[in-house]
Structures are given as structure tokens and as C-alpha cells.
């Protein structure tokens, strides 16, 4: 899995597709990464074989009927997730157990406080918030003056314990904002299907 | 047969619905209910009356708020509950509801078009509390898929409500 993304062009192809949050065609990817269409197509299909992308067919123009051409092959990021750890580490199992314990003990408010403190420690004063979020895997992007987050770094945990994990994530984001010292912005719950639950207004 | 997902949850309010403590919650009912009704996969919800702030009336105790709705699938219910502004409502639940030691939310499958009753919902919740999650009463965390097309329904209890 690590080797699959070693080639710089292929990595750029993957990162471009992942960052769009929608289906993209071969021509668009080739243009975005500055590669020949056939080379982009080769990397796209290798990424599909490796399970990192999913492919489908769709008409990229509004024209239909005879003469509109056959549907184009389009790509989007695959839903599955991959973890690489050498030597083997398994933080996820323990995190799931701990989340269950917090819920059994009714300790969600304490968990949020701890997440907020942890967030504060993650940020350097004066640090660029979007850069920090990008490094933490949130995949931030701007939309209508808001900073939105395409990826939930705690996806599996949020699926098992959504109220606890999303509340902790909001507290973590509020902590990072506080730690960075960025002013005039607040972190709020603004979830969408398939994205992170927090946005910065 | 197409199956739909019924869900019911109950909560013990910290204060009467007309108290200042509950003001934010009551003010949110209308937009949240409107959002639910316009969400993909929404089928039905039990209404307390014509006023958007009317809550479900029942004989199961004072200050018990009941939420009861039917959805096309697990995914559509999940996306409404956790992937809309409803999540912010859930996050603030401690301000309005007492902590509950026993399960307070239950789901089960019903044939599409069937309208479940409040009594049936309370029975399913009692079943979940008594026996833990089963195909007849379960939760998001211990989810059971809809029964298959043939035969599997024969063992299901006769529904207590009427057809729409």
C-alpha cells in the first residue's frame, strides 16, 4: 500500500482526486497534475486496482442521444480506509473500548474538556489553522467564506459512537483554534453526509 | 416486501416544556421537524398536534418526551440524525434531558406502508431493555438488517397497529 503511492505522479493523481470530493474524469486529472492523459489514466486505473479509488462511468456533458459519445470513465476516492504501521500497532481497538467506557460512565463532558485541552496543545500560537488541519488529516477546503473539512480523521470511532466522538472532535477543533490564537472565527457543528462534522465560520 | 425502519426514542426532560430551561429546545422543534420531513428517506413521524411545538401526548409519565419516526433505511436515518444540524441538538441533550441508565432509543423493521403505534414502540423499547438487542428491537450500535424477502417474517409478532 505504501509502494502504491510512492510514484510522485501517482501520488499527485490520488491527492487531486481525493481533494475534489466528487467524480472526476481522466482529462481533468491529467490537466491538474500536468501529465499526459494516457499516463494519468494508467495511474488512475492502478489506484483503482489497489482499492484506493473507485471507478464508474458517467456522461461528462449534458448532451444525450446519438452523437453524444459514450460515457466517460470517472474516479472518486474509495470509501475504505488503510492504516500502515510498522511494527504493528492497534490504537483503534483500544480507542473503541475507551469510547465505550466513557459512555458507560457518562463521562462525555469530561472527555470533551480533555479533547479541548489536547487541541490547544496541538497548535502553536500564530499557526495557520488551515495548515494545521491539513496536517491533521482533516482535508480543509473553503466554501462560501467557511473553512469546511472533507475528511473525518476519526471515521470508524464516529460510526460507533457518533455523539461522543463528534462532540469531542468539535472540542478538539475549538482547542486547536484557541491554541493558534486565530481570532474572529468559531468552530461549530455543521455536519454533512460523508464529511467531518465541524466547520469554521 | 419493502421494509422500513421504525425508530423511537424517549427522554426525561429536566424541566417543563414551557420553562426557560427548555426554551432553546422548544424553539428548535419546528426547524428540526421540518428538516426531518424534508430529509431523504423520511417516511412518517408521530405528531403531537397541528402546532409545530406540540409534543407527543401519552400516559407513560410526566416529562417524558417521545420521538417516533419511520425511515426508508439505516443510512437515511443516520444521515438525518448525525449528519445534519440535528447533531448539534443531540450534542446539547444534557442541557434538556436527564441522563438515562437504560436504553432510551430502539429500532425495528416494519413493512412499508404500515403505521406503527406508540404502544408498539413502548413494547419494543421494553423488549430491548429486557433482552438486549435482537432482530425485533435493536440500536444503531447493535444493528440488525431487514429480514429477507421470503419466510423470515413468519416468526415476527403480529403488528398491533393498523394499515395506512
Automatic annotation (TrEMBL), chain B:
What the entry lists under SUPFAM superfamilies is as follows:
Dimeric alpha+beta barrel (SSF54909)
The entry's protein name is DUF3291 domain-containing protein
Pfam families per record: DUF3291
InterPro entries, alphabetized: Dimeric_a/b-barrel, DUF3291
- The DUF3291 domain covers which part of the protein? 5-142
Amino acid at each position: 500500500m505504501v509502494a502504491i503511492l510512492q510514484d510522485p505522479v501517482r501520488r499527485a493523481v490520488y491527492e487531486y482526486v481525493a481533494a475534489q470530493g466528487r467524480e472526476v474524469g481522466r482529462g481533468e486529472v491529467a490537466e491538474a497534475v500536468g501529465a499526459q492523459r494516457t499516463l494519468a489514466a494508467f495511474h488512475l486505473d492502478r489506484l483503482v486496482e489497489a482499492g484506493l479509488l473507485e471507478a464508474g462511468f458517467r456522461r461528462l456533458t449534458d448532451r444525450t442521444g446519438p452523437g453524444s459519445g459514450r460515457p466517460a470513465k470517472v474516479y472518486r476516492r474509495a470509501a475504505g480506509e488503510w492504516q500502515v504501521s510498522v511494527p504493528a500497532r492497534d490504537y483503534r481497538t483500544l480507542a473503541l473500548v475507551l469510547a465505550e467506557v466513557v459512555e458507560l460512565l457518562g463521562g462525555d463532558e469530561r472527555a470533551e474538556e480533555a479533547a479541548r485541552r489536547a487541541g490547544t496543545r496541538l497548535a502553536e500560537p500564530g499557526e495557520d489553522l488551515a495548515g494545521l488541519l491539513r496536517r491533521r488529516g482533516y482535508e480543509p477546503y473553503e466554501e462560501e467564506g467557511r473553512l469546511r473539512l472533507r475528511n473525518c480523521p476519526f471515521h470508524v470511532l464516529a460510526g460507533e459512537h457518533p455523539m461522543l466522538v463528534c462532540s469531542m472532535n468539535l472540542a478538539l477543533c475549538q482547542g486547536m483554534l484557541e491554541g493558534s490564537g486565530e481570532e474572529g472565527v468559531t468552530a461549530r457543528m455543521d455536519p454533512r453526509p460523508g464529511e467531518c462534522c465541524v466547520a469554521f465560520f | 416486501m419493502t421494509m422500513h425502519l421504525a425508530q423511537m426514542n424517549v427522554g426525561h426532560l429536566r424541566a417543563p416544556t414551557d420553562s426557560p430551561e427548555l426554551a432553546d429546545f422548544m424553539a428548535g422543534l419546528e426547524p428540526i421537524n421540518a428538516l426531518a420531513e424534508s430529509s431523504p428517506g423520511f417516511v412518517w413521524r408521530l405528531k403531537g398536534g397541528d402546532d409545530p411545538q406540540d409534543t407527543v401526548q401519552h400516559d407513560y409519565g410526566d416529562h417524558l418526551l417521545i420521538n417516533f419516526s419511520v425511515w426508508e433505511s439505516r443510512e437515511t436515518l443516520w444521515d438525518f440524525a448525525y449528519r445534519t444540524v440535528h447533531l448539534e441538538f443531540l450534542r446539547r441533550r444534557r442541557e434538556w434531558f436527564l441522563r438515562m441508565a437504560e436504553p432510551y432509543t430502539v429500532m425495528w423493521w416494519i413493512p412499508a406502508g404500515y403505521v406503527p403505534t406508540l404502544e408498539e414502540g413502548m413494547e419494543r423499547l421494553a423488549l430491548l431493555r429486557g433482552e438486549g438487542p435482537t432482530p425485533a428491537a435493536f440500536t444503531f450500535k447493535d444493528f440488525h438488517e431487514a429480514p429477507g424477502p421470503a419466510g423470515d417474517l413468519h416468526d415476527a409478532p403480529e403488528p398491533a397497529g393498523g394499515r395506512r
